[in-house]
TrEMBL record, chain A:
Similarity remark: Belongs to the VPS51 family.
Name this protein carries in UniProt: Vacuolar protein sorting-associated protein 51 homolog
Composition bias, Low complexity: 630-641
Its job: Acts as component of the GARP complex that is involved in retrograde transport from early and late endosomes to the trans-Golgi network (TGN).
Species assigned in the record: Durio zibethinus
Gene: LOC111314079
Signal peptide residues on this chain, from the entry's feature table: none
Superkingdom of this protein's organism: Eukaryota
Coiled coil: 63-122
Keyword Electron transport attributed: no
Keywords: Coiled coil, Golgi apparatus, Lipid transport, Protein transport, Transport
UniProtKB/TrEMBL annotation, chain B:
Keywords noted in UniProt: Repeat, WD repeat
Similarity-based family: Belongs to the WD repeat EIPR1 family.
InterPro entries xrefs: Beta-prop_EIPR1-like, EIPR1, WD40/YVTN_repeat-like_dom_sf, WD40_repeat_dom_sf, WD40_rpt
Name the record gives this protein: WD repeat-containing protein DWA2-like isoform X1
Organism: Durio zibethinus (Durian)
Presence of keyword Repeat: yes
Pfam families xrefs: Beta-prop_EIPR1, WD40
Keyword Repeat: yes
GO biological process: protein ubiquitination
Coiled-coil blocks: none
Name of the gene this protein is made from: LOC111312897
WD repeat positions: 248-280
Domain EIPR1-like beta-propeller: 5-280
Length: 781, 351
């Protein structure tokens, strides 16, 4: 009540408060609690203390205010009285009307009891009547019910007796569904009474059902029936409690069998494509008919699977395995296929067929995730294909190179090495390009399978090239016989020919390495950049799979190694010659020289052979003239002069001594002759290097011997004879002169009596030798 | 090429082929070398490295009757050494003793302790057992291997046993296994033969043509390093004589001599007729023994085994010797008679 905060004038508010306190049963709950002491408003509270109020009023107010207050209060009291009267009056009115109502109710209720009694009576009589009717009708109703039951029973019996015939009819009309419904309906009865009353009936109907089952099975297995029908048959069979699992297994078996048929067909395709050697036909034409046949059979298989799924809805897993088996088988065959040598068109054909199969199967059997599954398998197959392609390429190249190994013996061709180099160059370049082109087909193809594998293929191809080129480098080293000493396994397999590796082959390999570095690798890099960029299935941290820089470096060093190896091999042959020459005779008891020794001929022959090989393989050097005029020219005079000047001197020891001194002095002042310079890929450089090494060996061999005068003179003669032909074939005459002089110096140092031959005798002997040579071989100058 | 200016030079009067470390001299780093001159009076030089290591001092100069083809110092007596010499027509070998008071004598004469004169053919070398006092000597000529028993006090050497190398095997040199007093490797034209001195029989062989020089690893058993004319340096594990454990490219021309450092593992010196001495680092670890292919395949992963090439020579280098007292020092001798002593200390830190 007090919560009502509507602003009222003071008087009205107090009124309401007063009234509410009047009606309120608990005076303490009034909002104007006794807290307001000492104020003039406390007059309205329950704890109003008149004395205090008065005191307060008297104390606080002056007379005038008191008087005013008095007047106000008097008016207030009067108002309150009026209000009170009004209230009492209103309430009294209400009370009177209530009393009136009660009086009226009392008078109305009096007649009701009699009416109720009447009602009770009537209800009682109705009940008794209905009881009467009930008893009179009871018997008849019992009878009717009995009759009804009998009729039902009779109907059932009739049904049972009719069942065989009905089933027969159903069989005739192939309404197996009805038949099964009837039979299953009759089943409980047969179960209950089958052994006694309905024996015949049961047997007959069971026979009929057996026929039905047979028919249904037939239907299930016959491919000519519609799937719907077959599915129904399966359902019916299941309803007949026939062991469906057995059937399912059988059907699955059948599917598996058809799977093998399918597999066989894949083989056939490959066989066909293998058989037709014509490459144009291989991929396209001849594949066509078997492909369509194959497709049809796959379609059939897919249909069968679809049917099977409908027939046996719970057989998903088995089918998935089946389908995956198919894919696995496909790819196994493919991998077998890949092992043989095929073009990517062939592989593409196979993959396309497989993918078509997979897509067909996928439609039917989506849960098997066949595309993903086959993607994985295809990944393996394609990877293997890439690997095997590179292996074949490697094999091709080494075959070409090995042919070199054989053919020069026959010497049918004029320039066997040149031919070999050209052939191997072609093999490498063309082979690589073909391989790239081949792989391009993969990328260009829009087959879904390959599109997904694109990145992988790019990486594989790049990796493949990297691996292939390093393998090629290894193979080169192996072919050159450099490795057979350090790698026993390869040595065993390749041992047969690595024993007698031809120097020419090594030279071919060296030049081929350079060719690869300078031509093939840029081409490959270009091609890869053009069609195999991207990839990125490898992590970024691994970098690109194909690193041309590294390969270039490998081949550059391989080329150098091989060139050195060639030089070495050739030098070794000459060394063997020289070794024999110097270890055989007793130089201390040598007889006077009569002619130029034949080792010179052999040596020159070797050099000629080298020249022939080198001319076929290596380019001519451009720096020839420039080289010759280089600083080494001065050495010729400083080294060779002392010897010639001293020819006439007779005091041996004295002469020898001064000679040694002079050589020392000459060495002090001359520039150090660069005997061992870097070998370059030119005819001249290689020949010069070999000649230089041989002459150095000659010098070393001479140093190990002790000569008498004749021995020394023999050496002098031989060397003098060598001078002219050697200068003709080398690019740096000064060095050759120097080295030849060194040999003579070495011989004179190792001579007990170093008296050189007189120049006229020397000349005569040389001329004789030249004449002899001319006689033997008129063509040789 | 790095210049060889760091080396300390010493000139012999004539050409020379052989230099040897005086192992028994534990107070000084000294080498002994002899000249090879057919027509002059040959000399033996005893050279000592000054204490500061900056100079080579001639400690003794002795005349030797013939040109010296091989010279080796006795490993247990610094005054004794052996030479193989030639008159031009015939060969001889002898054990010499440096006279005790040689410093005071005007022109001291070498004292010939013994002549190993049982040889007929061309003598190649005389071997001392490198690992210590052993009263046996081996001398090898073209066809025979002699085992001598040497008695220095009695000044006598007697042939204890002798064996022919067999038909068509011309021996060219040899090395005595420092780990086994009974094992000797002898090089011949087509192989390295291994002899057992107790039975004087060949035990095994490495089939390899043109081996010029062989040297046992002083530290590791079964390791032999060979130098071949054209095909560089090979390191062999004698238990696996078919395939070399390692291959080093060697020299531009022939690799003449090769020697393993007596102290530091895998340090090998080689001298060649291309007038260079190469210092190699080729440690043989158990792991990479069969993996010699790895070098060829991944050159980037393997450090270059060539540590340094000393090329400041005028002529072919035939003589090469590590100092056993200061194993970071070696002496090399080129044909023109120049001894160069180098220190490899700058390269040791790289190991």
């Amino acid at each position: 009540m007090g919560t009502d905060d509507v602003p009222l004038d003071d008087k009205a508010k107090r009124m309401r408060d007063l009234l509410s306190s009047f009606y309120s049963p608990d005076p303490s709950s009034t909002p104007n609690a006794p807290s307001k002491h000492g104020t003039l408003d406390a007059i309205n509270t329950t704890s109003f203390d008149p004395d205090q109020y008065m005191n307060l009023l008297v104390q606080k107010s002056n007379l005038e205010a008191l008087l005013k207050r008095h007047v106000e209060m008097a008016a207030e009291i009067k108002n309150l009285d009026t209000d009170l009267q009004m209230l009492v009056y209103e309430n009294y009115n209400k009370f009177i009307s209530a009393t009136d109502s009660i009086k009226r109710m009392k008078s109305n209720i009096v007649g009701m009891e009699a009416n109720m009694g009447q009602l009770l009576d009537k209800i009682m009589s109705v009940q008794s009547r209905s009881d009467g009717v009930n008893t009179s009708l009871f018997e008849k109703r019992e009878h009717i019910e009995k009759l009804h039951r009998t009729r039902n029973l009779l109907r059932k019996v009739q049904f049972i007796y009719d069942l065989p015939a009905r089933l027969g009819k159903c069989i005739k009309s192939e309404a197996y569904a009805d038949a099964v419904k009837f039979y299953t309906g009759a089943m409980p009865i047969f179960k209950a009474y089958g052994d006694s009353s309905f024996q015949d009936c049961k047997r007959a109907s069971e026979d009929a059902v057996a026929i039905i089952v047979k028919n249904l099975q037939g239907k299930l297995f016959s491919d000519s029936e519609s799937i719907q029908a077959r599915a129904e048959a399966a359902v019916l069979l299941k309803q007949l409690d026939f062991p469906v699992d057995n059937l399912q297994a059988k059907l699955l078996e059948k599917l598996e069998q058809s799977l093998w048929d399918l597999q066989l067909k894949t083989d056939e395709i490959e066989n066909v494509s293998m058989d037709s050697n014509d490459p144009s036909k291989q991929g396209k034409v001849s594949d066509l008919s078997p492909t369509t046949a194959h497709e049809a059979s796959v379609r059939e298989f897919a249909e069968a699977i679809r049917a099977y799924r409908i027939i046996f809805p719970d057989s998903g897993r088995q089918l998935i395995t089946l389908a995956q088996d198919l894919v696995i088988n496909h790819f196994e065959t493919t991998e077998q296929y890949v092992k043989r040598r095929i073009s990517s068109a062939n592989l593409l054909g196979v993959l396309r067929t497989i993918w078509a199969d997979v897509l067909l199967m996928d439609e039917v059997l989506h849960e098997a995730v066949l595309p993903d599954f086959s993607l994985e398998a295809a990944q393996g197959a394609v990877k293997k294909y890439v690997a095997s392609t590179f292996t074949y390429l490697l094999q091709d190249i080494s075959d070409v190179l090995l042919r070199v190994n054989v053919s020069p013996k026959e010497a049918a061709e004029e320039h066997p090495l040149q031919v070999a180099l050209e052939a191997s160059r072609k093999a490498v370049l063309q082979g690589s390009m073909d391989v790239l082109l081949d792989f391009c087909q993969f990328l260009d193809d829009d087959l879904g399978l390959l599109v997904k594998l694109r990145d992988f293929i790019i990486d594989w191809v790049q990796e493949g090239f990297q691996g292939f080129l390093s393998a090629l480098d290894d193979r080169f080293l192996l072919l050159s016989g450099r490795k057979n000493s350090s790698s026993p396994d390869q040595g065993l397999t390749e041992g047969a020919h690595s024993e007698k590796v031809l120097a020419g082959l090594v030279l071919v390999l060296a030049q081929l390495s350079i060719f690869i570095e300078q031509t093939v690798i840029p081409r490959i890099t270009e091609e890869i950049a053009a069609s195999f960029s991207g990839g990125g299935a490898r992590g970024i941290e691994n970098g690109p799979a194909f690193v041309p820089g590294e390969i270039c470096r490998i081949f550059r060093s391989a080329g150098e190694k091989l060139l050195h190896h060639y030089v070495n091999m050739r030098t070794q042959r000459v060394s063997a010659l020289l070794r024999k020459r110097f270890s055989t005779p007793n130089w201390v008891k040598h007889k006077e020289p009569r002619e130029v020794h034949m080792f010179v001929d052999l040596f020159l022959q070797e050099l000629k052979a080298i020249g022939i090989e080198v001319k076929q393989i290596l380019p001519q050097g451009l720096l020839r003239k420039h080289w010759r005029s280089d600083s080494n020219g001065s050495t010729t005079s400083s080294r060779s002069n002392p010897l010639r000047d001293d020819k006439m001197s007779r005091s041996n020891t004295q002469r020898a001594r001064s000679q040694l001194l002079e050589t020392h002095l000459a060495k002090l002042f001359k520039q150090k002759v660069e005997i061992f310079t870097k070998v370059e890929y030119t005819q001249e450089s290689v020949v010069t290097t070999i000649v230089k090494l041989c002459l150095k060996s000659l010098q070393e061999f001479v140093r190990l011997q002790t000569f008498n005068r004749s021995g020394f003179q023999q050496i002098q003669l031989d060397i003098q004879f060598l001078r002219t032909p050697l200068k003709e074939i080398v690019e740096d005459e000064a060095v050759i002169d120097f080295l030849l002089d060194e040999v003579i110096v070495a011989a004179s140092e190792r001579c007990l009596d170093p008296t050189p031959l007189e120049p006229p005798i020397l000349d005569r002997l040389i001329q004789a030798k030249l004449a002899k040579l001319k006689e033997q071989n008129p063509i040789t100058p | 090429m790095q210049g060889g200016s760091s080396g300390i030079g010493y000139g012999l009067k004539y050409q020379a082929r052989c230099i040897s470390d005086v192992k028994a001299d534990t107070d000084h780093t000294s080498f002994i070398t002899g000249t090879l001159s057919l027509r002059e009076e040959n000399e033996v030089h005893l050279i000592r490295l000054s204490s500061g290591g900056t100079e080579l001092i001639c400690e003794g100069l002795f005349s030797h009757p013939n040109e010296i083809w091989d010279l080796s110092s006795c490993p247990f007596d610094q005054r004794i050494f052996s030479t193989v010499f030639s008159t031009g027509e015939s060969y001889g070998a002898a054990i010499w003793q440096i006279p005790e008071l040689y410093g005071q004598l005007n022109s001291p004469q070498l004292e010939r302790i013994a002549s190993l004169d049982a040889h007929v053919g061309k003598i190649n070398c005389v071997l001392w057992w490198p690992s210590g006092r052993h009263d046996k000597l081996i001398s090898i000529d073209d066809e025979n291997l002699f085992l001598w028993s040497l008695d220095c006090s009695k000044k006598a050497a007697q042939v204890q046993s002798k064996e022919s190398s067999g038909m068509l095997h011309y021996l060219s040199g040899g090395a005595w296994d420092p780990h086994d007093v009974n094992a000797v490797a002898a090089t011949c034209e087509s192989s390295v033969q291994f002899w057992d001195l107790r039975t004087m029989k060949k035990t095994s062989a490495i089939e390899r043509a043109h081996i010029r020089n062989a040297n046992y690893d002083m530290k590791k058993k079964h390791i032999l390093v060979t130098a071949e004319d054209e095909s560089g340096i090979h390191i062999w594990d004698l238990r696996k004589p078919k395939i070399p454990v390692k291959e080093l490219p060697g020299h531009t021309h022939w690799t003449w001599a090769v020697t393993c450092n007596p102290e530091y593992d895998g340090l090998i010196l080689s001298a060649g007729t291309d007038s260079t001495v190469n210092l190699w680092l080729a440690p043989i670890s158990a792991g990479d023994e069969p993996n010699s292919e790895g070098i060829a395949e991944s050159p980037t992963q393997q450090a270059d085994p060539l540590l340094n090439s000393y090329s400041d020579y005028e002529d072919s280098v035939y003589g090469l010797a590590w100092s056993s007292r200061e194993p970071w020092i070696f002496a090399s001798l080129s044909y023109d008679g120049r001894v160069v002593v180098e220190s490899i200390k700058p390269f040791l830190s790289r190991k």
